[in-house]
Please model this.
Amino acid sequence: MEAVRVLVLMMVAAGIWATWQRSLFPGTWAHTFHTAHAEERGLLTQARRQLRPVDKDQRQAEKEAAGQVKAEKEKYEQRVGRLKREVALLRDPGRGTELGRLGGLVLYEHVVAASLEGRLLPARARKSCPAIEQRS
Model:
């Protein structure tokens, strides 16, 4: 009984080896196993060995290039975001700092605001009545 198990295991191992060989050397069974094609199989194996380091270097270079592309893309996105914020600030600079007062008028860097009886109107009133607040 033990001899049958050993024989079955040897047959399974031989089948696995044959399948592996077929995957390495495609074509007919003769291309994979016949001695007439042994030299060609040897050349193919040697070429594959020489190609491995080249493939490895190429994958490494590709990985580095992808990293550089990602870094440059992030820099670009940051620059675009900064420029968008600058444009938004230029479009709506706000009041700015107070520069002076004259009666009911208050002069800011970007706005002249009017107030009734020397008091500034609340922001809601100024926005709803454009004649009160003039942008320069």
Summary: Strands lie at 98-102, 105-108, 111-116, 119-120, 133-135. DSSP finds four helices and five strands in the chain. The CA atoms of residues 80 and 86 lie 10 Å apart. Helices lie at 2-24, 29-33, 38-91, 123-128.
